[in-house]
Design a protein that fits this description.
Mean pLDDT: 92
Order of helices and strands: EEHEHHEHHEHEEEHHEHEEEEEH
Strand order of the largest sheet: 1-4-3-2-5-6
Helix content: 25-40%
Distance between the termini: 40 Å
Low-confidence stretches: none
Largest sheet: 6 strands, parallel
Structural class: alpha/beta
Number of helices: 10
Strand content: 25-35%
Amino acid sequence: MQRLYHDETIPEAFRGAVLALGNFDGFHLGHQAVVSRAIALGFHMRRPVIVATFDPHPVSYFKPDVPPFRLTTLDQRQELFAHAGADAMLVFRFGPEMAATSAEGFVTDVLAEKLGASGVVTGDDFTFGKGRTGSLAMLKELGAQNGIQAEAVAPVLYEGDRISSGRIREALEAGDIALATHLMSRDFAVEGVVQRGDQRGRELGYPTANLVLGDYQRPKYGIYACRVTLDDGSEVPGVASFGVRPTFEPAVELLEAHFFDFNGDLYGRRIEVALHAFIRDEKKFEDLDTLVEHMRSDEAAARKLLALTD
């Protein structure tokens, strides 16, 4: 899948495309419905389909001190959009220029003139332009004047409430991995380069691959059953700890994943750790023997949750 940027020349092959327009952080079931409709419209109009997203997230631009909240990286989104069947990903680089663009200018100058869009599909709550003054009604009206067919997809509900990225973040903070997985249709996954740690896990018989979460939403501190995708595409099961390791000093926030039945050097390699199920809260132990005893129990629980044992 090709990655495009709004402030660069759009290849001629993608002019006249149908755009799925939103942020799509998390790419949950509601986002998937928008992209699915865009793909159907693109097929009907015989046009390529582009999924557009914003980076950085507008919230990060206007509130730079807000705690980390991202559910996906750009690379993860690109892979998800490709699997959904889109032809390209368009990144709106959100900065002073984009923030100052009026709603009218966004439709006429960006969507129509710059991109040459033939169709736009959004969620029913999508707003745009300076001060978020652009509404769905405006998008349809200005779109029609510029040869753009615009439409919105109704919200996707779960247990009577709208599926949203905010709802997923709340579930992760509460350790409700099952709910987050259901809303996204996949496990929440953290991608990153394996960092060299202090070797404590190896000394205890549980070597780990360590990742720094960066801009990712923080899930609840604790122990998780996980599945890890390596940079060669292979997948290995394991158990992960996310937190500050209260048994050791100094406190350092890390995601540490131990792989089952695996031997290999992962330092410097890019992996993705998908949290499958929450096992227990993070705890401080008085001695290492007690810690190792709990680690063995965590491994057994993870193997059972991952259907590796009866």
